[in-house]
């Protein structure tokens, strides 16, 4: 697999070729990755997969016209063909007065920050199989588990590079390790239910033990056996952290530059205004050591730094790449992301909602009748109006206590009101790319099956 230095040199080389072929400006991204995945089921090896791939994306500008192309063939001859095709396409493309490279004075200069994203560890398929079996065995050992969808373990490594014609060339490498288990409980007179657990980390030393992951999967599945139906009505909804993070995803989509520039966001015009309850702070931290989405620079070569998206309930910023920033008359915010082809979009890195002052038990204590949501189904969210309606499963809350599992119900509201009525517990843990503590939202509408 390509090293970061090799990836950076190749990205820089194709940008130079594009300029020589007549492009006024160009940038290129190159990603090279390798991975191994092992899956087991019922104590037996089910599959071993290994993959390696390289993809290069080139974007060229001829005046205000641009075109993007990509390839997995990195031979010199293929690069020449790719450059010629891209420049020819750009000359025929429509003009876009907002398109262009990032502002040169905003590019990251000097040394690229070291974020400890690569541990150099390459587990063997045999050790991955051992971890997968341990996770599944622990899950199946939980009393009440009746079947298994399997366990798995994976390891991957990636080098990512970006080069631009106006002076930026950078690269970094990452590793990722993961373990998961998924099992079923119930049967006979009780319907079968499933649940899962997984953990991912940049360094293998940071992974939870396989048996702890498996045990969590088994306990979650058993707790869901014999679900009841919840009666409809307005009530508090408490979100488990593994599903509460989806609320942050809806916020990020609503403050993305493209949505603001098009006028298609329910938060349009809310910059600098209170959109969450007092005390709520949401931060994006690209410099988190070993973070699952940490990065030393963004998809346009801009420097990045921790940013409060919401501070004490007040919306602090849009998320802008260069094109939407120009359209809005603002500066890019360092949130550009790039794939192998097309123009940059926007995205966050390690985003988290800061812990509140109340304990998790405090959030439950005041709920006489409500639901604790552990699974969300479907995507019934309107980014233009903020209307929210999703299928859910979880547990009934009665007199401040979790009682029995419930499923096949819908939770509904409007994100504008939901954000303002949100209360955060103090149990934040960093396990995912987006992390939140337990969250409570009062006044939602629950429709039972």
Automatic annotation (TrEMBL):
It holds the Pfam family PmbA_TldD_2nd. Residues 26-90 form the Metalloprotease TldD/E N-terminal domain. One of its GO terms (cellular component) is cytosol. SUPFAM superfamilies: Putative modulator of DNA gyrase, PmbA/TldD. GO terms for molecular function: metallopeptidase activity. InterPro entries: Metalloprtase-TldD/E_C (IPR045569), Metalloprtase-TldD/E_cen_dom (IPR045570), Metalloprtase-TldD/E_N (IPR002510), PmbA (IPR047657), TldD/PmbA_N (IPR035068), TldD/PmbA_sf (IPR036059). Residues 121-224 form the Metalloprotease TldD/E central domain. This is TldD/PmbA family protein. Belongs to the peptidase U62 family. Signal peptide: none annotated. It comes from the Bacteria. Coiled coil: none annotated. One of its GO terms (biological process) is proteolysis. Residues 232-448 form the Metalloprotease TldD/E C-terminal domain. The lineage of its organism: Bacteria, Pseudomonadati, Pseudomonadota, Alphaproteobacteria, Sphingomonadales.
